[in-house]
# Entry
Amino acid sequence: MTETRLPEIPLAQAQLIQGNEACVKGALAAGCRFYGGYPITPSSEIAEHMVRLLPNIGGVFVQMEDEIASLASVVGASLGGMKSMTATSGPGFSLMQEHIGFAAMTEVPCVIVNVMRGGPSTGLPTSPSQGDVMQARWGTHGDHPIIVLAPSSVGEVFHVTVKAFNLAERFRTPVIVLYDEIIGHTRESVVLPATVDVIDREQPHDDPDDFWPMVAPPDGTPPLPAFGDGYRFHVTGLAHDERGFPTNDAQVAEALVARLHRKIEAHLDEIVEVDTYMLDDADIAIFAYGIVGRSAREAVERARDAGIKVGLIRPVTLWPFPAREVAAVASRVDTILVAEMNLGQLIGEVERAVAGNAEVLGYLKADGEPITPTTLLEEILHAEKVRQ
Amino acid sequence: MNRNEIRIAGAGGQGVVTAGRILAEAAILSGSHATHSQVYGPQSRGGASRSDVVIATGPIGFPLADDIDLLIVLSAEAYTRYQPELSPDGRLIVDGRCAPASLAGTARQFAVVDTSRAISGSQLVTGVVALGVLQAVADVVEDEALRTAVAARVPAKHRDMNLKALEAGAHLVRETSP
# Structure
């Protein structure tokens, strides 16, 4: 861990900024110095701030011809040693799937921000949605691990973006930051920290002549030198051995894919983050994330005022899914109410983790309108009636 | 926790989005928490435009307006579109030119747009005049913080004109107050 100074941020002073701007500030604080992207609503402010700030601090901004090329440039820059990111929304995120898989297989650290808007296809460009949760997990083909983080406020966008870079570097993996149009565009008062903890990718200590790039323990991450540092290595999306060259050997391929998963699954404590509120004596728990987590928290407070024992479980880490944490809540409450701005994506994961130990109800909506505290309060009242 | 939801609604070109940002920034300078949201997309092109500010003494839960306490409308179309979203016990301020006759006696009316025209020759500072009005009516932030926020947000060459617009808005209220 090393500390870095934030560029352009006054000390401990509240400021009114958009979520997309907080994302840029977090990325720069974490050490991001390359942005390759193609602007799309509602993520474009990220590119706008990046193009203004990056050149002043020795960084590089490239507007690519499309989103496929955008993530390709990010992967290339990262292999060159720069912490790199891109940002997009649903339609662009679809195009990025190929290279998300490539980055996962080649273990190239990178951060992809998806500011979700209504879908499918070009859908509702200026409306919020949480429709890309499953795409973030399974959009690219093959068995691959992924880390997906979902902030629920402008301030949390900053912290989550820093964490995304740290996890990408620590585990040599693509990390997806997933939030919606409301969080991207709403301005909120935030006080940003003067310094943040930053993790940099591990470097090899071998003699460059004896360097095998993909050597790691079964649950570990290999070091990653930058191209140009003197270490020569081959990068391929094909199954590869410890020397980095393609192979069809079943045992080698199996070990590689297993390690890609284990390097994440063996370190859940570093990755999984779940926020809880008023769960201690709760009969009902709301499960909500992102902007809906904000509505849910307020609905919980109003329902408590009405004498209903309700709490909140809000995953910040969507993938790997916090199954242990959800199961623990399910063992203590009667009902889990899942609220998401889609027609049912994480609710299936919740049901799997709950495994029949609590009743699971859903409030699922995909009309481009936010889920308000008032609406969720009504759902809580309904859940309480059903419970009794 | 005290939570106040304020909507500034008008037409494109009146500066309602900037006015909302200024109000939220003034709230922060006053030591409060604040959020600001605006309309994007087709709604933001011509026609009615709006800017929502939530001001609270503590951290803000839901960041969007859900139950508007104070609505100031600066165009007839904005009145039609946004008046129904005002909380039943919310307060309404209307520009005198766009208020329907039925409003007489129920909403406070001020010549916001005319004042902007008198100061700037156009609707350019309508939003800032509106800020002067709503601060004088509802005292939502500190007066000095509002002046500071206006001066910091508008272009330097228009600073004096905007500060004049802010004062003119407050004056509209003072001269009609009982």
Observations:
- The beta strands of chain B are 3-11, 33-38, 48-56, 68-73, 86-95, 108-110.
